[in-house]
Amino acid sequence: MSNLFELALICREADVEIVSDALMEVDALAVSVEDADADTDAEHALFGEPGMPAPKAGWDRSVVKALFPSEPEATEAATLILAQDWAGDVHVQAVQAVPEQDWVRLTQSQFAPVEITPEFWIVPSWHEAPPQAQAVMRLDPGLAFGTGTHPTTRMCLRWIATHAQRWPRVLDYGCGSGILAIGAALHGAHDIDAVDIDPAAITSSRDNAAANGVTLTTGLPELARGEYPLVIANILATPLKLLAPLLCAHVAPGGHLILAGILSRQADELKAAYAPWLALEVSDEEDGWILMTATRA
Ligand SMILES: C[S@@+](CC[C@H](N)C(=O)[O-])C[C@H]1O[C@@H](n2cnc3c(N)ncnc32)[C@H](O)[C@@H]1O
């Protein structure tokens, strides 16, 4: 007997973002999209992850799924959605029980140790660290972004690991799970400020730091004060452009700025946004994402 029910909607040329908002309003526990033609950017835009707005031309048939704790709630959500003015192109595919599974084991099976460099690994608590690992970060998936599985996070960590030194101050701006700040601490950094606009990220960073035996100062962005020899921000191209004057002001003379969450095609707009203060260069690339870095004279 299942205790979860899935509502699946077929959307033909519908504005999928509106559909997902409506599902959220009726207490959906999760929404996912299957679209044979969807490119990665389109899926990212729907979920608010790094990426560009979805090209609507690519969405000729999508399936939006939402999970509910009971069948009446799923059916009520379907009725509410189909009654909307914009729902003409939305059809209910199914309201059905989700087969019982060992959800914990299923989740755990999706997270294996992640290699950042041959010596530095991110390892979930239920896994042994690989024997060749010399630096190990213990991190389990949680509410905040940053498990090491995303290319943007991996590129930042790779930069940290290959530029390991006793950084006297570090600013991790948009810390999520705290993964970059903890990575810096494991590679010799001290006095690390990890800030985020999301309170859940601050809590998560604090917990993950404790689990790794490192000390971070965590808080809202106002916590960041003065200049740092190392400033890292893995956010998104648009907020990174808005944050340019602020982030540059935090970089100490001779200090480094490391930016991620940027697609390859966005390199020029980022360079232009930072040009009044710092000369950004592309220093790494993975799966269409780039790492941009600059050093203050
Ligand atoms: C892509 S996640 C990166 C998390 C982690 N640093 C990593 O590299 O995996 C971006 C984080 O930036 C935070 N964020 C977004 N806009 C922000 C802003 N204007 N100021 C501070 N944090 C922000 C989000 O809440 C989120 O936790």
Automatic annotation (TrEMBL):
The keyword Glycoprotein does not apply. It comes from the Bacteria. It holds the Pfam family PrmA. It is found in: Cytoplasm. Signal peptide: none annotated. One of its GO terms (biological process) is methylation. Methylates ribosomal protein L11. This is Ribosomal protein L11 methyltransferase. The gene is prmA.
